[in-house]
Design brief:
The protein is mainly α. The protein is built from eight helices and two strands.
């Protein structure tokens, strides 16, 4: 008959639960999987399935001494690592939400907001359009599988016993806001510049001929040109997505304190 002592059962449970905290916290924050459209039970079930698969091959699983203070520290470290990795990928998606907001404000669609079912907030129509494209690209290019692979490899870079985020990783999380705003500006700059030139031209026409109601024609014309510029700019959307995704994984590497995954 199979027999095991209480200490052995405790060790087996700890070897499963410590990696599970990192995996579960990652799936609760990461885009697509961690959105409100995916129920929490499904996310927890996926975390259990992934943890069950990867636990037999994980290195340096610790010897746990009951519910000691060291155990709670390890749990907090795993949650911090998982949330940090998922948060940086969430920043990648928010670049397109912010870039769409900048373009929509310039073309006169800043008032047209819709409810985003993924995040439970209201965003402008153009931002929702960009988010839908990014989500489809993310799934079509197996981005979810790449994220799971990066999560599994993080256990080799930062084992459970050494799962604290280094100081350089914390600095990377702090500076990710700079990356968010600069990338959103870079994404929206061509359209914003073109619309600024159009509005500047209408301003000159209004100054030259005050009797003409130029802005009555300028508002729908600016909106039409904004939609046209957005349509034309979709040609380089895929290459831009590749570059932003590469930067996102570089930030994850900095959080883990390595040169590459």
């Amino acid at each position: 008959m199979f027999s095991a002592s209480f200490l052995e059962i405790e060790q087996w449970a700890a070897e499963f639960l410590l990696p599970f905290f990192r995996v579960a916290s990652f799936f609760m924050v990461v885009p697509v999987i961690g959105t409100r459209m995916v129920p929490a039970r499904i996310r927890m079930g996926l975390a259990l399935a992934v943890t069950t698969v990867i636990v037999p091959v994980l290195p340096n699983l610790p010897q746990v001494n009951g519910l000691s203070m060291q155990t709670y520290i390890w749990i907090a470290e795993q949650i911090l690592v998982g949330i940090s990795m998922g948060f940086l990928m969430q920043i990648l998606f928010q670049i397109y939400a912010l870039g769409g907001q900048l373009i929509a404000s310039q073309m006169g669609l800043g008032f047209a907001s819709v409810s985003d079912p993924a995040n439970g907030v209201s965003v402008v129509v153009l931002s929702q359009f960009y988010l839908m494209i990014v989500m489809m690209l993310f799934l079509a290019l197996n981005g979810h599988l790449v994220l799971i692979e990066a999560l599994v490899r993080s256990f080799y870079v930062l084992p459970v016993t050494e799962g604290v985020v280094p100081a350089s990783g914390l600095m990377a999380i702090a500076t990710s806001g700079t990356w968010l705003f600069s990338s959103a500006l870079l994404m929206s700059l061509p359209a914003v510049t073109a619309l600024l030139v159009i509005n500047f031209a209408f301003g000159i026409m209004t100054k030259a001929a005050p009797q003409l109601n130029i802005f009555a024609v300028g508002f729908p014309f600016t909106m039409l040109m904004g939609l046209l510029i957005t349509w034309v700019s979709l040609e380089g959307f895929l290459g831009q997505y590749y570059r932003f995704t590469e930067f996102a994984f570089q930030y994850i590497e900095r959080v883990l304190g390595v040169g590459g995954l």
